[in-house]
Amino acid sequence: MSNALSAHHYNDLLELADDLYRRLDGHIIMGIPIGIGKATQLVNALYHQAKRNPDYRLDIHTALSLSRPELKTDLEKRLLEPFFDRQFKDVPELDYTKDAKHNCLPGNVNIIEFYFKPGEMLHAAKSQQNVLSANYTHVARDMVDRQVNLVTQMISKKQIDGTWRYSLSSNPDVTLDLQRLMRKKNIEDGKTRLLIAQVNTELPFMPNDAEIKPDFFDYIHDDPKLYSPLFCTPHQPISPVDHMIGFYTSALVKDGGTLQIGIGSLGDAVVNALLVRHNQNSDYRQLLENTDASEKFPILNSEGGFSPFTTGLYGNTEMLVPGYIELIKGGVLKRRVYDDLAIQKCVNSGLDPEKPSTEWITTLQKLGAIQSILTQTDVNYLKHWGLFKSDVTLEHGELRQGENVNSTAQINADTLQWIESHALGSVIQHPTLIHAGFFVGNHYFYQDLHQMPADQLAEFNMTSVSFTNQLHGDEMLKLEQRHHARFINACMKMTLSGAAVSDGLADGKVVSGVGGQFNFVSMAHDIPNARSILMMRASRKKANKLISNIVFNYGHITIPRHMRDVVITEYGIADLRGKNDQEIIHELLKVADSRFQPALIKQAQRTGKLPLDYQLPESAHNNTPEAISDIMAATGQQLFPTFPFGKELTDEEVVIGGALRRLQANLSKVWPLLPAILLPTSKRKIEDNRRYLARMRLDTAHSPKEWLFRKLLLSVLPTASKR
Fold it and tell me: What domains are defined for the chain?
């Protein structure tokens, strides 16, 4: 390790922080990973010392700084504080995030982020000023260009055969490329650049590309007292609207294809629908028939699939979300790929990786992967991939397996027969089920990764986003692996020209960030048979006013109109690829909320983008929430439940949460509130809801405010028969 850091034992992190400031001339320009890979206690120590010493300067480059959500209203606190106390028990928090949200960062500290936790920094002026808009694949480059001189990261360790081994675990995404670029710059200019790790065995140990040697870092701080629970993102409830979006999206996924999905209720809805399609196919097809989906949306017949998954899917994703584990358990994610172009071509040509044969040998020879007279390199290659048994050797031009000898290494009929009798392995080795860049999840997800058998975990390759998010580099291999790719992401709005709004508002404020969305949209246009799918709710409420998420125009875009592809709302599928402007508008109107279709049509006609005699198809006239409710009611809650993959909330908290959402919807309407306040509440209603009142500490009202809260909550709690 360089700079003699490894030779020193630091008693605490403040001592290490002071030493780092000294070594870096008082100005630390730090890069830390997205999500849970942050070395939180070390970052806090560096931030603490900068706050104490105004002569120090600290610039932090990062993304997705996760923190315990702040609660604003008394009712929110009564419901969620006990849940948060359970959910985030003993999880260390990032001190800079708290200060950034409240606009009280010290003047000598800057936080530069390329992706916010959605909506969290809308009112944080300094954070908005320091947004770094970048594609995920450009982040490592941009950090080096911004003179990053310190990288800190939380890592995992595991003892294997008496030796401690280390893993980047949740975050090889940028670090793998950043370390290489920083080492290269060190050689070029001789400046000090350091990489520091902090061990936390609560992080799952991930193998393959995520496993690194100790000298990957300049110093590894390992203090068991600092091992701490990970930040968890709880399961979100999936609404009927989200389930419909997930259903339409699932019908565009081809068996034998490639899947990328993101976190949140829409991603979970897609996972649930894929599992229904695979395991309850007759019910799935009934819903297809009930919605007339294949008739209304022709793209399903050419690009989609409705049958169970025989070959299964392979995952190539920026983010490894818990849904992928559910897809493995449910038998959907099972197509394995191989990180060797010739091996992958053999699989794609129909050769069975579960049954090695001499045809594999001849095909590899034709592809130029091995020579006609096998060399030691060729034998090692065949043994590595499992085509040869591990005890096959090449000695003096002869192939040997135990006492069995073949007098030549030349591939001919006799040699192939000998190989079949003595040398063939039983299965192709080193399959990959998922390539991913980083992960964040819930308690169950981390537990699954910790407890997963080694041979199954070996099929997970956490790696760089320069691999997962683009074709550049190993392009031929990626094209062979990513057949029928479906890159599925979410957006906030779509314009009638086909542009997507995913990360910012018209006034310039950034909600989240571009992340990898543009990468995947672009890749979908470059891979044959791939499609980019942007999911979006057709409408939403803002300040208790209903607004359309399909708009004529908008002051900010994330994906430009010329990159348009597939857009899905709860009302169906808009196929925008290769369409002209009138056709794009027509497609989007078909999946817009019917309450906004007339105004959108008039806007398009005023600008000459639609003919004055334009008629909306009859099938699109009933795009209403009531129609969605009817479809879901007919389908049955058992197929599309609110929490298909478990929940962290108690049953009482789920009921109260739904009631509070209904109450919030009524807050701007005086009339619904008056009866709730003025009319007496029956004793039966109170007794039926006693446990919910107790959970909110409102079983007895001790003040006028508590009396009001109690009355309002009782007004929106469902009766016992409807729960």
Answer: 2-226 (3.40.1080.10), 240-336+434-627 (3.40.1080.20), 352-423 (no CATH), 651-722 (no CATH)
